[in-house]
Each structure stands twice: as C-alpha cells, then as structure tokens.
Write a structure and sequence with these properties.
binds carboxymethyldethia coenzyme *A, 4 helices, 2,3-Dihydroxybiphenyl 1,2-Dioxygenase, domain 1, alpha+beta, about 25% helix, globular, 8-stranded mixed beta sheet
Length: about 140
C-alpha cells in the first residue's frame, strides 16, 4: 500500500501568477520561496510552505497544456493533490494492479527536482492525484 507520509502539495490553477502570489502573500501572509517554470508541463509555478505541505500555484504557459485546458474548461481552482510517497515506481505498479488508470507509467521530473507521476482523475473520483518522491532528500537523510 502507498501510505503517503503527508500531502506534499496542493496544485492550484490560476490565470495570473503575479496576482495570485499577491493574495497568498498579502492576505494569507505566506512567503513565496520559489518561482519556477516547468516547460515539460507548460506551467510557471510559485511555491509557499504551510506546515509540511506546499501550495503550488500554476499559471499555464500554453493554452493547449494541461493547466491551460483545465482553466479553459473549469476556470481557476484546485487542479491536483500531491501525496509524498516512497518507492514511487513500486507504487505505480501497485496502483495499476488495483485497476487505476495511470497517466504516467513511470516517474518523470517535476518542479523542485521531485520524481512525479499522475493518476488519471477518471480512476480517482474526479481528483487528479500526483504521487511524488524526493529522492534527493532520501539520499541526504541516509548520510545524516
Ligand atoms: N482534475 C480533475 N479532472 C480533470 C482535470 C483535473 N485537473 N483535468 C482534466 N480533467 C477531466 C476533464 O474535465 C475530463 O472530464 P470529462 O470527460 O468529464 O469532461 C477528463 O478529465 C479527461 O479529460 P481529457 O480531455 O481526456 O484529457 P485532457 O487532455 O483534459 O487531460 C489529464 C487531462 C488529467 C489527463 C491531463 O491534464 C494530464 O495529463 N495531467 C497531468 C499533468 C499535469 O496536470 N501537469 C500540470 C501540473 C504540473 C506540476 O504540478 O508541475
């Protein structure tokens, strides 16, 4: 079983990153600690820490990309939930064996250098679920 350790992040689709960052900083009082473009996903992202969980704001850089299409169809809002897991490759095999439709059958690199893979929302009660693993952290903690 996957047994995620925590919600790694919640992805929120926004039309304009700058305006959204202002809300999270000025109203919620969070600090944006990283802005990063992920060309493979056609997004520009902004990150905030809230306890052990991050908020990832996602602005599309391509109307045909996943977030561009999502905003066109559903408007701004929660786009995905990401769970921190270990041994992500094994978790994908397990999910597939349980009859879950995978978007990624093997992990790819996402923002912040994490290994990520998505499960299809049609198999997960309409919520796009991301599994992610920080393999760098694992390596560092082994030497501490
Ligand atoms: N949450 C829930 N449902 C979603 C969704 C989302 N984020 N995105 C699309 N859907 C729904 C669509 O509304 C559609 O539902 P209906 O058939 O009921 O209308 C269904 O999923 C399938 O849509 P589709 O037209 O077949 O597929 P799309 O081309 O819209 O792609 C998806 C959907 C999930 C496969 C695609 O967005 C994807 O591969 N996502 C994974 C990658 C990603 O989202 N990257 C951005 C984030 C990157 C990051 O975090 O760094």
């Amino acid at each position: 079983m996957m047994k995620p350790s925590h919600i790694e992040h919640i992805g929120i689709a926004v039309k304009d990153l700058k305006t959204a960052v202002t809300f999270y900083e000025k109203v919620l009082g969070l600090k944006c600690y990283n802005i990063e473009e992920v060309p493979e996903q056609s997004v520009k992202t902004a990150f905030f820490m809230v306890g052990p969980t991050k908020i990832e704001l996602l602005e599309s850089t391509d109307p045909e990309g996943p977030v561009g299409k999502f905003i066109e169809k559903k408007g701004e809002g929660i786009h995905h939930i990401a769970f921190a897991v270990e041994k992500i490759e094994e978790q994908l095999i397990h999910a597939e064996q349980m009859g879950i439709k995978l978007i990624d059958s093997s992990p790819r690199k996402g923002a912040e250098g994490l290994d990520i893979a998505f499960l299809h929302p049609k198999s997960t009660n309409g919520v796009l679920i991301e599994l992610c693993e920080d393999k760098k952290k694992e390596k560092i903690s082994r030497f501490v």
